[in-house]
Structure formats: structure tokens, C-alpha cells
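Hey, can you fold this?
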Amino acid sequence: GSQVSGIILALFADFNTKVTKGELIAQIEPSPFQAKVNQAQANLDAAARAAVVNSQAVVQQALAGIQAANSALAAAQANVVKAEAITEDDKVKVDRRVIMVKQGADAREDLETAQTTYKSAVADHNALVAQQHAVEDNLKVAQAQLNVANSVLAANQSQVKQFAAALQSCQIDLD
């Protein structure tokens, strides 16, 4: 018997001819099997390997996005700390002005200016905290994108293995 079937090109044994293991009995037309090998090779080369290369590029982009988000987060955290210090300083100045106005040592207008400066510092601080939260969210998105990219890469690498196995199977049939 034969593992594959096809058109016989040459017959080297006849019915009831004694043969030994490994002896060539018949030659089957190889062109359909060669075509399958060629197709399997093309699938492996074009589709699968290109997809892996593209997936690796997406992973690298996601890593770059994470690095950028980490840098932006560090800057945002520094800005929040700076804004907290300014807010605290402005609060101390307002408290001092309140005492000075009560004692008649300072003008009411100076107190109002200090209060306005303090309110502005609080608003700036709140805006920077919100900006920090946005950057943290961007970092989470970048990490999720990296996870997706790694999953796609793994799937494409598995597809390469599938195409390689299909190529090996076609090559066995051809042989």
C-alpha cells in the first residue's frame, strides 16, 4: 500500500513480485505534491512570518508607549508635588494676612490678593492632579496594548508553527 495516491509514472514491481523492505515499487507523479509543498512554503513565508515581524513591531511600539507614559507620569508627579508646596505656602500667607488684618497691620486688599492667589494655587493643584490621573490612565492603556500585542505575537508564532507542520506534512507526502 501507499500513504498517498496519485498517477503512477513508473511501476517497478508487478502483482505477486517478491520485494524487500525499502525497495522502490512504483513512482507516483510528484507534481501535485510539489505544488502542495510550494503552497505550504508560501503560507509559512508570506503570511505567518510577516505577521510575526509585524507583531514584534507592535510590541516594540507598545513598549515605547509605556516608556513615554512613565516619563510623563514622573513629570506629572513632580508637578503635583510642586503645586502642593505652592498651595501650602499660599495657605500660610493667607493665614498670616488674616491675623495681620485683624490686628490692623495689613490692608484688607492684601488679604484678598493672598486669598485669590491661594485659590488659584488650589485650582492649579487640582488640575495637575487630574492631569496625573490622566497620565496614569494612559499608562494603563499602554500596558493593556502591550498585553494585546504580546498575545497577538504569541498567536502569530503559533501560526508559524502550524504552517511549518503543514509544510513538513506536505514534504513527507512528496518524499
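Oh, and this one too while you're at it.
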Amino acid sequence: LAEHAEGRPDLRHLALQGRGPAASIFKIVTAAALVEMAGFDRQTEICTHGGLRGLTLYNLRDNPKLDTRCDTLTGAMGASRNVAFARWADRNLAPDDLQAMADRFLFNRRLPFLWGVGRSEARIPRASKLEFARSAAGFTGTTLSPLHAALITSTIAHDGVMMAPRLVDRAVSPEGEVLYTAEHAMLAQVLSPEAAQEVAAAMVAT
């Protein structure tokens, strides 16, 4: 929740605003969908070309002469390989699959918190093969609050369970009396423990 806006020092609660692009953080959601819905593991491999700063339909097509960059899921996450995630999604997921996974991570919903949190949005394109692939790589269709980003990563670390965010665990008086203890509330079982552990292993390697 620490914040600083160089040009707008009057801005407050930047971490609670859901207007920023989800960008490559959304690759965690795509990876979760690939593991849970398409049977991937951290060693699933693909060979690709291009896609460093943009994606075209050309990047989605196999090209044996150019497809010389080979990555596992772990390596693709570590290098934030746009074209790898785009191709994987294009070939192994439907837009409804990725939308369902985003919804399971509580995109498009209000998160409970001490203060209001702006909704992170995920509108996965259905009409365009390229735009769907771009969304899977984090290029388009999604916004994210920093608080929600923290919840996404903690969900992976917590065996697929998303817990309600809280600021204070407990308060104790100088005499040792417990004055307050937070309730630990589960928001959702987003992933199976096995899928979460596979994604977590890739993230730890990253």
C-alpha cells in the first residue's frame, strides 16, 4: 500500500485502483488455465519465433526455419515470452476457458477490503483469434489493481486458495492482552492444490 505519484501527489490509494494494465501478470492466469484445463506441467515445451514487443498472426504459425527459441512453461514465465503464451492459448484453450479462469481469480468482481477496491477487469476477446492470443499474453482485455496482483500471487503460494486481504493480523496491549484478532476468510478455491503447486514451481524457478 506504499505509494508515490510523481506528477500527482494528491492521488491516494493507488494500490486499490483497478485501472492499470494487467500486462504480463496475466500470464499467471493463463499458466493456471493451461495447467488445470490443458494438462500442462512446468516442463511443457514450445519452440517459437518473434513476439518480443508485439504479436501478429504470423507469430502464431509454425515455422520450422524460424522457430528456434524453445522454452518450457517455466522458462517462458521467467522470460515473459509473449509468443509462447499466445501460441499455447491459441492451441489449447478456448476464450471461454480463459475467461472462466480469470473469473475464478475474481476478475470482474469487487474484492472485500477495509477500503473500496476498484474492480480488475478481464474481457477475453472471442471474435478474433489474434486478439484472444494477445489477451493470453497480457497485451489486451485486462486491467488489474496492485492489491489484486498480490492476491493472485498469494493464491498460487497458498495451494490455490484465495484469502481475503487484511491489514492487521492481531493487536496486543503492552501488558500482553490480545485486543484484536483478524478473522481469516477464504474468498475462493481458485485452483486445485496440484495445479497451484505446478504453477508455483515455475514461478519459484523464475
